[in-house]
Design goal:
Layout (H helix, E strand, L loop, with lengths): L1 H11 L1 H50 E4 L2 E4 L6 H10 L3 E4 L5 E4 L1 H6 L4 H10 L3 E6 L5 E10 L5 E9 L1 H49 L17 H50 L4 H32 L8 E4 H19 L2 E6 L4 E4 L1 H17 L6 E8 L6 E8 L22 H4 L7 H11 L3 E7 L3 E9 L13 E2 L1
Parallel strand pairs: 9-11
Antiparallel strand pairs: 1-2, 3-4, 3-7, 5-6, 6-7, 8-10, 9-15, 11-12, 12-14, 13-14
Helix pairs in contact: 2-6, 7-8, 9-10, 10-12
The structure holds adenosine-5'-diphosphate.
Length: 492
């Protein structure tokens, strides 16, 4: 069972499949090359034999004379070489008259069998010679050239000479056998080489897999070393390292969030406890009990608002929160929120002002727009030291018809460039001596981002450390903004 599973995973493995593809490709290539060589060899040998037969045909016509229907081979009896040549030419040959009657033929040609009279008549009528391949009874192939030769009176006779193709066939067969005898060995060697090469190619993948297996929430900061080849595997390693880096940041944020939540929850809890203890041990009068209860209730309210915020965000992000859109006069909504912040601003020694273009109508969810502005405003106030200024602006977007622009700007501590891309992430807080003094959960801007995107808008931040921050929200007004005319801005 274990062996079967081992074999199955080996067969499914990338290394095995790479080797198999390589071996298959190599085998097909080897066989194709073998067949091509075989065909070329056969063609070359046959072409040589054709050329030889062509020469012999010319020579035979020189030595053969036909007188009164009888063939006479003219050879100098004193020249043994000439006699030998004529003997060779007559080795495989035949001569027939125009009607197909056989006049003379060699023994070997007889074994091939006579040509049909119709064929002979056709060849003589065309006066053309041609090559053909014939076989004797034993299956030996012959290349034969047939054509017409004239006698002393110009009458045409059918003449054929041939050569055995056996040597050619044997040479080609010999080549084929010895070539294909090597093929299995070559394929085995290719398989071995392929296996080793594939092993080398997939080793870094194993490395990545092992590193991935070793990775836990605790050791995310140890990246896998690059190989330096700058190839696909290095890119994979880069992506993997980037992913673990992002995971590490998320883990850090969650850890930090747990600490922050505990801290945020502990402060009001400790206060409630203190107040209840005071009530229990030192309060004497109804008034003292009442004061302790009122204070405790305020802190309970603080606690439940933290829990509510967490719950709301998780509902928003999981799509359970649905916008209740109505046509709103955003200028007055913004004005109302700014009003509510005037007293806390004064208490902190901040100048809060607003420039509101009137009659900015939009289809939006009132509660969410109020929450959006409250979050931006409370951040501006939290991160601006006393003596600073905060502005709120709402107007039609001068760059985009049918859109409106909501801005909250302050002269506070600002946000360093490298932190700006992350501030809208859930639980993200900038950590530096100035921001550490301020309490928060890193959820306010996550809400802002969610509300803006749920309304189909965008939010951007513009900030210089030590100078201030400006948040710009752009929202589509829906079908209503275009019908109202712009008027003078009103400052409050
Ligand atoms: P928090 O509860 O920490 O304020 P937010 O999500 O509202 O969480 O903001 C995320 C971070 O962005 C803050 O921790 C703070 O560092 C930075 N930030 C937000 N608004 C401002 C601002 N007006 N001025 C400077 N820093 C800001």
């Amino acid at each position: 069972m274990r062996i079967a599973r081992g074999t199955a995973s080996l067969v499914r493995g990338l290394r095995f499949r790479l080797t198999l593809s390589y071996v298959l490709f190599f085998s097909i290539l080897l066989v194709a090359i073998g067949l091509l060589f075989r065909a070329t060899l056969r063609y070359g040998l046959d072409a040589d034999l054709q050329a030889t037969l062509e020469e012999e045909w010319g020579a035979a016509k020189g030595y053969l004379r036909i007188e009164r229907g009888h063939p006479i081979w003219v050879a100098d009896p004193r020249d043994p070489e000439e006699a030998y040549i004529v003997e060779r030419l007559r080795h495989i040959y035949m001569l027939a008259d125009a009607k197909g009657k056989l006049l003379e033929s060699s023994k070997l040609y007889e074994s091939i069998g006579p040509d049909s009279p119709q064929d002979i008549v056709r060849i003589l009528a065309q006066r053309k010679s041609e090559f053909r391949i014939r076989q004797d009874a034993a299956g030996t192939p012959y290349l034969v050239k047939v054509g017409a030769v004239p006698d002393d009176r110009g009458r045409l006779f059918f003449f054929a000479i041939g050569r055995s193709l056996e040597a050619n066939v044997r040479t080609v067969d010999h080549f084929t056998r010895s070539y294909f005898l090597w093929v299995p060995g070559l394929i085995a060697a290719a398989a071995l080489l392929g296996w080793l090469l594939a092993g080398r190619a997939v080793r870094p993948l194993d490395m990545v897999a092992q590193a991935a297996q070793r990775t836990t929430g605790m050791n995310l900061s140890a990246p896998i070393p690059r190989r330096g080849a700058d190839d696909e595997l290095d890119h994979l390693i880069d992506s993997f390292n980037l992913m673990t880096e992002r995971l590490r940041q998320s883990f850090d944020q969650i850890r930090q969030f747990s600490t922050d939540v505990s801290h945020e929850l502990r402060t009001p809890l400790t206060a409630i406890r203190g107040q209840l203890e005071v009530a229990l041990f030192t309060a004497r009068t109804d008034g003292q009990y009442r004061d302790a209860m009122v204070n405790a209730l305020e802190d309970v309210e603080k606690l439940s608002s933290i829990v509510r915020a967490l719950l709301l965000l998780s509902q928003a992000e999981s799509g359970q929160l649905v916008l209740q859109k109505t046509v709103l006069d955003l200028s007055s909504v913004v004005g109302d929120v700014v009003e509510q912040f005037q007293i806390p601003a004064e208490e902190k020694g901040l100048a809060l002002s607003a420039a509101l273009e009137p009659d900015i109508l939009a289809e939006a969810d009132r509660t969410q727009i109020e929450r959006l502005l409250s979050n931006l405003l409370s951040n501006a106030m939290k991160y601006t030291p006393s003596g600073g200024r905060v502005w709120v602006r709402i107007q039609r977007d001068p760059e985009r018809e049918g859109w409106l622009l909501l801005q909250v700007e302050d002269t506070g501590v600002g946000i360093p460039k490298q932190n700006q891309p992350h501030i809208f992430d859930r639980f993200y807080r900038v950590r530096n001596p100035e921001t550490n003094k301020v309490q928060g959960l890193g959820l306010g801007l996550s809400f802002v981002a969610w509300i803006v995107s749920a309304h189909g808008g965008t939010v951007a931040v513009n900030s210089e450390p030590e100078v201030g921050a400006k948040f710009t929200v752009r929202l589509p007004a829906g079908s209503v903004l275009a019908t109202t005319q712009p008027r003078e801005q009103v400052a409050v």
